[in-house]
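Table S7 (text form). Paired inputs.
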Amino acid sequence: MFLLPYRVMSKTRLLFYSLLTGVAYSLSVSNLPDGFSWGNLAWIALLPLHRVLLNVTPKQGFLRGWLAGFFAFTGTMYWVVVAMNLYGQVPLPISIAIMFLLTTYLGLFVGVYAWGVVWMEQRWANMAWVLAPCLWVSLEFLRTYVLTGMPWGLFGYSQFQWLSIIQIADITSVYGVSFVIVLTNVTLFLGLRWALAKTLISTTLVQPWKPLLASTVLILGTLFYGSLALTNDSSLPTLKVGVAQANIDQALKWDTAYRIETLQRYGRLTKAMASQSDVIIWPEAATPFLFEQELGYQTLVVDMIAQAQVPLVFGSPMLRRHDDGKPYLLNSAYVLTPQGKLTGRYDKQHLVPFGEYIPLKKILFFLDKLVVGIGDFHPGTGPTLLSIPHGPTNESIQIGMAICYEVIFPDLVRRLAKEGANVLVTITNDAWFGHTVAPYQHFAMVVFRAVENRLAFARAANTGISGFIDASGQVLKTTPIFTEQAITHAISLSGPSTFYTKYGDVFAWACVIITVFLLWFTRYFRKPTAVDTIFQYPSPRLRPKE
């Protein structure tokens, strides 16, 4: 049976339970456009994983956790193959190998989680339920930074549609939601395990009442806080934003013969929005040329904005040179006024590995850059706000800009808010993802950046999803992917600063400290219970046979 702790588990059974966790995890963090909330699976996704951790050593727990994590992240990140092969022209076998290399690496984090749970169960069983969510958050936090960071598909993102549960992100960031989910999974498993064991045999297991009480209080407290936070302040000033989604095919985007058609599309969309907008936003690298250098095409854009009489925020690559004359590129966002002046520029800080640069280039020398025909990019120097005039007095509005991949990093967006942004904008080119789940996953992360900083977000994506999100994470308006559309909406400007904006990842660091302490303590002090582990029977004769 599912919850009984067999001494030996068949390989088929192990594979099945690991796959169950992997599928449930990957579905839960994927915002599939089918109307069903797959995020509900997150609340039970770890039950099969904990099933395979019964009566194993920490080393075995690590391997089983890694297997479940490998399945989870392969299902979550399969789109890497599409991006690299279909659009990056990387051979299919190499694309698949790179995807498996990535998911093998990401699976290690789940493996360490499983190792820690088994370790704690064998040394201080009554505290294993405390370690589990703290360890999970610590590993997600580590994943955000190690090897330049890859915090794609964090567990908390599964709940982006459940507004009342995610409002705690303005204190804890997305990590707090992950904490609640993991604690609930562990509590459910302990409760089911204890209840079933009591009906079958007479033995003493760690009782689930403490974790059950803690989970109940935490969930109710989270929902209560969320209900209070969802009270909208209608007195805040608003900004009317227009977003252009030109839907330029990635295969044609950098084709010089297609430049005029690209600009004509943006011209039509801009004209349609001009009368309803205080600012218009084009996506990342919207101009398929070097805006500052290629004056002929630059003039066409300047004329469009002069006719629209609305400031434009848009993405364009920028060429610069080192002291030795060697050229390099920056992925930049500009502000262009109706008078034809560039009044601000932000250079992307966090570049996409294999997209804008090759990490470990001496080792991976055989790989060309994914962005065909552009070249290696260099990172910008730090957070820079973009200013636009607003209202009859031309009051300056400060825009915090995150370009594409940057929006998945909570602290990077937090620093923009802390610098004094009144509104947040992200521009991206998700055409690389094709018709996969990745654009939906990417969009869900923006919801959390809005909640964390209590700032509304406008998102302009070349092929979608484009849209608007208010400061509480409510999705106001979106576009379908791979359509040409112009949409406008009035979004609120800044309200009160949040705890997370002011102080950063205090919650995540607290989880790290608790995790380190518990693992260190149990390294030297072991506190066995009447049952040596949470999930073992006191004697072999009481174990059911397979």
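Next pair, protein 2 of 2.
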Amino acid sequence: MPPESVLLAVASLLPAVSMLAAVPVRRDAAAPAVWRRFRVNAGIAVVAAALSLGLQLAGPAPSPTLPLPGLALTLTAAWVALLVQTLGTVIGVFSARYLHGEVDQPRCVAALGGVLAAVHLLLLADHWLVLIAAWAAVGWAMQQLLCFYRDRPFALLAAHKKRVADRLADVLLVTAALLAWHAVGSGSLSAMWRHLEAGAPSPALQASAVCMALAVVLRTALLPVHGWLIQVMEAPTPVSALLHAGVINLGGYVLIRFAPLLDAVPAAQWLLVACGLITAMLAGLVMLTRVSIKVQLAWSTVAQMGFMVMECALGLYTLALLHLLGHSLYKAHAFLAASGAVESARLRTMRGATSPSAASLVLAPLGSGALIAALLGLQSLYGHAGAWPWWWGCVLALAWAPLLWLPAQRHPEGPGAVRGLLAGAAMVTGLALAALSGHALPLGTADAPHAAAGLVAMVGMAALYLCLALLNARPGWMATWRRWSYAGFYIDEYATRAALRLSPSRWTPVAPTECRMKPREEPPCRPC
């Protein structure tokens, strides 16, 4: 093996090994030493992930296989690995201060290191068994973080609902693996891609794609199994940041990884379009009625996951990957900076809240559409005119239109429309750079499942934009919808009852018999 390939293999495997080595062996270890060890190992993992990405971008196409069986290198995995490891390192440093004085800090460090190590293994998975085992390990380690406060009933209920959803997803993934193994004759994902290139998928492979899509719906907390993602807000804030900025986005990565299978099975694409569109519409309405900043961010994550799943279903994998990267960075910053929400709300109240004008509500889609048209024009200059169809440009225009009037509503003292226009221009510039440099990001087919699903998505996003505009401009017109939105359309109540019937909760709150904080050591008395 050439030295470059050896260095690339070591750099790709080192993040998982380093984070696994950061897991403390003893639960009674001193917290400062445990966090110091985590920071050192996390720093090594960040450098290794950056080196792996740099080698893949700078050199020729690397060998897809690694020395260990069931693992493979992909450029998409390198991007996501660097993102997750960087966010995990920042969250770990934040947690060391946030949890100062807690008695269970070694358990938190162990679970955090286990989550990051399992995520790196999932990103390198090239076999069904490795993928299923790594995703299950991510869920198990995340469960320990969600139950950090064992005396909070709602946190335990949310963790139980997540465990039920994860077990159902595991059953679906195992079923998908067995069907694909039967059709291909191997559990290797690379072998399945070669099998799909040879001809149309068999009925077993089509059923496997549908099962995999359903498993992603369960793992990414789309409606109606979204309730646990909202109720885990009782976990520590760094845990919420890790969940919403990294773990929940793994569903989008898996869909990008299985792009060849999704493109060949329209039934799975239509399923994802329906689930993603309904989730984005309903969660977007509920988000506007929430007062708690963390709960509002949680509903925002549900809506963004629906939009990301819909992007993958429509074949726009480059856009989905950019969405994944951007959403992770934004949501990590939003959760870690949630403590400043009270001050921001007080300042907005002192300045006086304003509603967007009717003209801005009408002109916003046109301005956003102009930005999309500029992107399509850039693509046509470089021979990529057919990369994104016109209907997806309309979907993006409707999705980005609130950027042109929400800043004006939040910052009435400044040129909010100009800020929104600059934000939209920045996103279009990033998309243009990605679309015009196909070697840096994986470009998708962008024409599946044809124009029909794109038109459905366009109509749904238009309906969502109309509801958002009415709720912001004329709250009195939508009083009934506000009541239903505030109740989350009563979806989670039915899902909770079904989950408890399917698997009765075995979690009971631990009675807070003693203070969770370590007692302060008093200085010894000196003799008189």
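Residues 339 and 378 are 41 Å apart (CA to CA).
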